[in-house]
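Bumping with the actual sequence this time:
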Amino acid sequence: MKNIRNFCIIAHIDHGKSTLADRMLEMTGTVAQKDMENQVLDDMDLEKERGITIKSHAIQMNYKGYTLNLIDTPGHVDFSYEVSRSIAACEGALLVVDASQGVQAQTISNLYMALEHDLEIIPVMNKCDMDSAMPDMVEDEIIDLIGCKREEILRCSAKTGDGVEAILDAIVERIPAPVGDVDAPLQCLVFDSVFNSFRGIIAYFKIVNGTLRSGDRVRFVQTGKEYDADEIGVLKLDMQPTKELSAGTVGYIISGIKTSTEVKVGDTITHVARPCDKAIEGFQEAKPMVFAGVYPIEAEDYEDLRASLEKLQLNDASLTFTPESSVALGFGFRCGFLGLLHMEIIQERLDREFDMNVITTVPNVSYKVYTKDGGLKEVHNPAGMPDLTEIDHIEEPYIRASIITTSTFIGPIMTLCLDKRSELVKQEYISGNRMELLFDMPLGEIVIDFYDKLKSISKGYASFDWHMNGFRPSNLVKLDILLNGEQVDALSTLTHRDNAVDFGRRMCEKLKELLPRQQFDIAIQAAIGAKIIARETVKQVRKDVLAKCYGGDVSRKRKLLEKQKKGKKRMKQIGNVEVPQKAFLAVLKLD
């Protein structure tokens, strides 16, 4: 056990974690030169294309007689739960900072997470070979952040491989070996699971105490289910079966599990014959933050969509979904996502991996609605809002947002945040001209376009991170969109009363551009309750009935126009309006 080192790589998005992992695999000879490619561990096409890590990846390397278990983690704020699980399975972490960008928001939040688990931190400064690198300045920032000595910071370039060997040596020297009792009752921490269509669900775990042998009867503590360990082994580039694994090692178990809900990430595995006293603590269910309706474009694809979502859930435990129906869109699912990037990725994966074409409604967050009779209802969907007369008050979720930027962009960023109903908590200089701004802001305000706007006004230099900060009372209203007096429930949103009129007007204008013209007038209205706050009209397509009247009495023309008018009125009563897919997407990008 003294020759095992378990570590993860944590950093802000795009600071070079996966590239550093590539170099380590190359130097330790884990991946043969012919199999080497960029982002070896990122096995989804989507990850390679976007240059981001979506799932944690575990792999074992051998270096100078030591066994190194590396867990490469995502860097985006949406996936911080993935990172917390990986951190719990490690004794040390490489904190990677880009030498040209310096410390950014996610770096700080991941660092705090690692410190909470008492991990040994090795600061690494990457991309030192770039022309824009500012190594001395970034070193000062790292020292301010974690209070280490200057000589403890390792400089490297993951692209060229300079300094990577020193990092491997530092992992062996500085990170402590795992502690655990090989003879104690079995305790394994599940930190990830993947679905294989031939073998069922494969759970990745770290053994904290005890020894696991192939063929043992095991129990998953949270779910209470029991299985036989058909195959256990270690994770090299491929899975390598072994007969037994003991405390401190990271491995996988295949036991023919078919349904995803039976493997909870953060669960504890133990022996049926000799169980451990208590489960490993510090884990919670992943909590979705953003909710949206996902509907198949063709109604008959509903069951296929359910199957696709279930399969996705096998690979992504943080996705939640419940069936719901909408008058405009038929049957679909209310899905819970960790954030907007997560939502975008699930949509993309549904399209690529399962060939599912879906419509996604406007995303919203969950609100607490207190009724006058003292009840409390959690609302994820505008349609589930109780009647206005029954509501006492509504509370919405608030977040503590941290934005790190250069002082040049402070003005525009302040304006953006204050427009989103935020309160400035504090601002302080980190180093040089870089500042950290802390805001309390409603989660509902960042759901639609906040991140895009922040990036554009700061020319890409601002980094953004957030965590939940409780609920606060708020003056929210439900904004409905009516087409010819019929409510389109999929376009309903919950918004703050101050923004409602402006938002309603913009939605009506946008829909006017997008709805195809019919044989009759279409009235597009935005309403709060029974009060109409905005209206636009899509004009009817008309045949020129006066074409045959050349001259003659005006009464002939009037007679033809009256006849046409009656026909249009009849059409309007029986006609229904199809809302195109573009309209639902456009509402997400209202600007």
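The tokens above came from a reply further down the thread. The longest helix spans residues 554-574.
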